[in-house]
Amino acid sequence: MEAAFALLAGAFVATAVYLLLSRSLLRTLLGVAVLGNGINLLILVAGRLTRSAPPILLPGQQQPVGAIANPLPQALILTAIVIGFAFFAFLLVLAYRTGQAFGTDETDVMRAAEPSSPREPLSY
Amino acid sequence: MQTALVSVTDWIIVVPVLLPLLAAALLLILQGRFVSPSILTGLAVLGVGVGDLFLLRRVLPGQPLAMTMGRWLPPFGISFVADALGAAFALAAAVVTLSVLVYGRSEPPAARAGWAFYALVLVLLSGVDGAFLTGDLFNLYVWFEVMLIASFGLLVFSATPIALDGALKYGLLNFLATSLFLLALGLLYGTLGTLNMADVIARAGGTNTAVLTAIAALLLVAFGTKAAALPLNAWLPASYHTPPAAVSALLGGILTKVGVYALLRTLVLLLPANRDLLEPLLAVVAGATLVLAPLGAIAEGNLRRAVGYLLIGGIGAAVVGLCVPNPDGIGGAVAYPIHAMLTISALYLAAGLIEDAAGGPEVNRMGGLYAVNAPLSVLFLVLTFAIAGVPPFLGFWPKLMLLQGAAALGTPWAFALAVCLLLNALLTLLAGGRLWARIFWRPADSEIENRSNAPPNRRALAFGSACGLAGLVLVLGLWPEPLLLTARAAAAGLLAPDAYVSAVGMGGRR
Q1: Are A39 and B186 within 8 A, CB to CB?
Q2: Given A3, B56, B125, B126, which is the most exposed site by the fewest CB atoms within 10 A?
Q3: Whole-angstrom Cα distance, residue B79 to residue B139?
């Protein structure tokens, strides 16, 4: 079961790399989103997949009875999802504004910060 | 197991994180009313600096200070651990932030964009200090994201096309780097079952070398991107020249050094056996960064982009220390980023003053600026010497430590790296000297005039803040004992982690 999930996480990351290599900004951003999901899946598998009780203590219990699921990956993933979502939203707005400023979403055209025309060399 | 409560005097460990966060929250509530945002921010950063100083004095004898949050015992609770490395870096970051705040008062109000600028600076400082002081790898990831989101805000503040372009490239590549960091954390958790740094040290020895080395390599890629080491540096020259000079100085001074810090923390302290295996790769990265980055500065016509390349060259010097695992080498890797924080920030501030006086960033259109502002030419020359590591200034000592470490190691790799270090000093001097000659010495193309719009008292304030940093670089160069002592203590703590592990309360598990 874990092997199948590991392969699925790998497929997510491979898809993300393919999308990230695109010149189109929108595809790059989709790649960022897919990469985040692949990594979250990886963390879930890293905590081991088990068929056991949820990690909840009933009233009066001091410690769980029997095997329980690993709660830590879920806490990690929850944090990572929130952060990843915020960043994706920010990058989406940033890309939208940049696309408006340059009139395209081709990253080849966006050379305002790094002009591509050769400068005269710094000589005397 | 550590079960006693941490004494109240030791709560000082959370001050560098909590104080700026609270001040930023206060700024958000007040929105610039009642209190001047710059003064509130200045006081908060001053408080952080004093806290860092006390923290450094407390941990310098060699016993790190640890605090685990929320009555969850380590390794489950999130630990904060201050050792000489983290406290010294945090102190340097506070000094840089304070200078930048003083400089920022001189920029036109539009560039400062009011109280929100100060809130973002505070959040950035809080994230940086959190990264320096946390003892938990996932928490380190969270602090990385905190400072990343604050730096996004600072970069796009002016919202000009050039700033948007720079911020987009910075944002995508840095977010990718932190995603790879998170990926490495997932794999590490799957292998060792823990993300508490002290627990990782106790468990990493000898288990599954192949997997841990792959994780270490992934961490090298992630933090190498954050530190802008060649060949992962593309985002830095694309973005750091786009915001106002104060923001350039803040980001350029502090953020890349957090990447170096994370490399030191993970490769030297947590996974030393795997660092040994990655040593050839680290040596290639260090050598290439040292030699190629100053060549970029020589070929560059935009002043602040050229400064960016000089910054990247310094990262190479810090990576040299990672390849030389003896007290001198690691000590040099600790001392160099502290020097670079102060000097690079001062250089960016000086570049901002030059661009202000010349009316643009293109070095080819400057010239004859000596006639307009002679003191500024002295400042820029001093900082050029400092960044190249010429003796009376601070940069000399870390490089000397690195050379001593390489000589003590005595392998062919180490000698090649020592040659690269010296070559870097020469090329940096060449690049800086050419910039200086081009900007100040060369006769002007047109009539010389000061094109700055800023009122004289504001210009004096900005010049004073850059001079303050440069003066600190000179004083610490003439009296390097405190820095060298701190670097040696930090290196000793990194190479022998027992004190670190027992401070967190994981000592019994070894």
Answers
A1: yes
A2: A3
A3: 9
- Global ipTM: 0.93
Residues B406, B414 contacting (CB under 8 angstroms) = yes
B167 interface with A at CB cutoff 8 Å:
yes
Q: The tokens 């004289």 sit on which residue? A: B456
- Percent helix, strand and coil across chain B, each to the nearest 5: 75, 5, 20
Q: Which residues of A touch B (CB under 8 A)?
A: 13, 20, 25, 28, 32, 35-36, 39, 42-43, 45-47, 72-73, 76, 79-80, 83-84, 86-87, 90-91, 94-95, 97-98, 101-102, 110-114, 119-122, 124
HSE-up (13 A, CA, CB side) for residue B27: 25
pLDDT of res. B509: 47
Calculate the alpha carbon distances from B497 to B57, B131, B136, B247, B503 in Å. 19, 19, 15, 36, 10
Q: What is the mean pLDDT of residues A105-111?
A: 82
CB pairs under 8 A between A and B: 108
Residue-wise pLDDT tens digits, B262-280: 999 999 988 888 888 899 9
Residues of chain A positioned with their CB less than 8 A from the CB of B438: 122, 124
Q: Which domains does chain A have, with CATH numbers?
A: 2-52+70-102 (1.10.287)
Task: Kindly report the pTM of this predicted structure.
Answer: 0.93
Q: Which amino acid is at B452?
A: S
- Give the CA dihedral B320, B321, B323, B326, nearest 10 degrees: 150
Residue B307 touches chain A, beta carbons under 8 Å = no
